[in-house]
Structure formats: C-alpha cells, structure tokens
Design brief:
- The chain is mainly α and about 150 residues long.
- It has one domain: Lysozyme (Orthogonal Bundle).
- Helices cover about 65% and strands about 0% of the residues.
- It contains seven helices and no strands.
- It has helices spanning about 10-25, 30-45, 65-70, 80-100, 105-115, 115-120, 130-150.
- Helix 2 packs across helix 7 (about 130-150) and helix 5 crosses helix 7.
Length: about 150
C-alpha cells in the first residue's frame, strides 16, 4: 500500500490535516435561533434600540463595528442588522475554532459576541470569566436553547 511507504511524521501530518478538515467541515455560523436569541437578549427585538454607548439596532452593535461590515445606515432594518450580526459571529467563531478546534457552546457564543477580546485573552476558558458575565451568558443560552426547542 502506498501509505506504508510514507515516513511516520508524514502519516501523522496527514492525520492531523484530515482531523482539522473534519472540524472545519462541521463549522457553522450562528444559527437563526442563536441570532434571534442575541436580538432578544440585547434589545427585546427592538429595531430602534440605542445603547448607553451609542450601540445601534436590535443587536446593539457599536457604530464603528457596524460601519466595518456594511455601508448601510439603515440601523432599524432587521434584515440588515441580522446580516451584520451574522458576519460578526462568523468571524468570532472562526477565531474560536482555530484556537480550540471545536464549535462554541451557546454560552461561549455569547462571550464571543459581548466580550470577544477579553474572552480571547482568557484563551477561551469559560471558567475564567467573571460570575456576572457567566450569568449573562447562561441567560443568553437559556433563551437560545428555548428557541431551538420551539423550532423543532
């Protein structure tokens, strides 16, 4: 067989590459249920919501972040806001998957959304997150899980 002629190091490399390909094949962006849960958590689905720091839309996205993902200024358009939120989640999840080789849980998705730099600096270790932030993450996960069950 051809594989048996390869040095062990090359065989291990091929196995590692195949494993990573499987992980990334299973990669997914935030689901509709998760995006709906983010919208509900952030603003109770209020398209006109404005945060204390100037955050915009039902997803409470900072204006500079919004501008990075779209030139649209239609902050009250739920479809535009959902597209921006989905792209933000996708980028954050990609970094998480590269670092951990797995998809984030709902709690981790919330942290990737709410405090991406801080969570990254903690090497994505949920146990290192403050109890208050963990409570918010668990509250978000409960909303997301209830929405997933409701869709079935």
């Amino acid at each position: 067989m051809m594989v048996s002629r390869l040095p062990h190091s090359r065989i291990l490399l091929l196995i590692m590459v195949a494993s990573l390909a499987c992980v990334f094949a299973k990669a997914r962006a935030a689901t509709i249920s998760q995006l709906n849960a983010l919208s509900e958590f952030e603003s109770h689905n209020n398209d006109r919501a404005r945060g204390k720091g100037g955050e915009l839309s039902r997803f409470q996205i900072p204006p500079k972040v919004w501008a990075h993902y779209t030139s649209s200024r239609d902050y009250t358009n739920a479809a535009v806001a959902r597209g921006v939120a989905a792209r933000i989640c996708q980028e954050q999840e990609q970094g998480f998957r590269r670092a951990t080789r797995r998809n984030p849980t709902n709690q981790e998705l919330f942290l990737l959304w709410a405090a991406p730099s801080k969570f990254r600096s903690m090497h994505y270790q949920y146990s290192r997150v403050s109890s208050g932030t963990r409570k918010n993450a668990e509250r978000f996960a409960a909303i997301a899980n209830s929405r997933m069950v409701a869709r079935r």
